[in-house]
């Protein structure tokens, strides 16, 4: 299977809006969590079905419905029926390879983006799709599996710390997006440190085995980050510019700050992408330099042995009339000649600074 695309054979030829899950089943059974709060009150019931959440939806409260597990198309269809979500948007939510996007409907803002995770132990980058459905009084999030990404936000709601309980669903959406983008920056920082350490290894005399494979792996990871993060710039920008009224004017400053963070993340990815390209270029240049050094040594050695071999070849011929063959000190003369040739070449190479 391709790294950047999921297998789409299951949806080939199907009608638009067909609810078919594209991806891996990550939990056995879908799970629904609900948090309902106002400035003074808080409740965290345990709904069995989406219908159990409906009584908590009121104008004077904020409800956060979190659905874990995307493989059950039945619960997604029920979600669309209860909250009037178009089938094409539901189809996008089930496609875990969906490009990050934002869609504005008459009543809602629908966001689809990626939660990224880097396993430092196994040195592996993974992604999970999350969808956010924002209304005036509620926020629905859909995730592939149960995770602890947003547990700090739940704790802030439970303890009534910060602004969350005093703000609306739009500020809750901001808090989730802020957590996701902060995690982007942490992963970029982690990968960036590894990439910078790799650069130092390129110039070592003894390069570790598999260095080129390591550089190419980092290049693939950075490309994956770029694919997942770059469209989020457009999402945040459209949230700031949208005219739906779902984002309160006094909360726009938080989204502007979030926009600065995602720009920083995108720029950092571009920097590390260029750095990896430079590393590959330097690596090949270093290999060429080492090959040239080897060829230089071999050439110098050849330069020494070619005249010596020539002299030895001349006096090794089987002709009777070679006068020097009958000299009393011919053997000594031969070695003196060899030494003189060698010393002359050494002086010549030194003057030319060839070694």
Work out the strand percent.
Answer: 5-15%
- Structural class, from secondary structure content? alpha+beta
Number of strands: 7
- Label the CATH architecture of the largest domain: 2-Layer Sandwich
Number of domains: 2
CATH superfamily of the largest domain: CorA soluble domain-like
Description of the molecule:
- Strand 5 (109-119) and strand 6 form a beta hairpin.
- With 355 residues, the chain is of the alpha+beta class.
- The longest helix has 63 residues, at 252-314.
- The two termini are 52 Å apart.
- The protein has helices spanning 73-83, 87-94, 151-159, 169-202, 211-241, 252-314, 330-352; strands at residues 31-37, 42-43, 62-68, 101-104, 109-119, 124-134, 138-143.
- The chain has 2 domains: 9-286, Beta Polymerase, domain 2 (2-Layer Sandwich), CATH 3.30.460.20; 315-355.
- Helix 4 (169-202) packs antiparallel against helix 5 and helix 5 (211-241) packs antiparallel against helix 6 (252-314).
- A 7-stranded mixed β-sheet has the order 2-1-3-7-6-5-4, with helices on both faces.
- The protein is rod-shaped and about 120 Å long.
- It is built from 7 helices and 7 strands; from the N terminus they run βββααββββααααα.
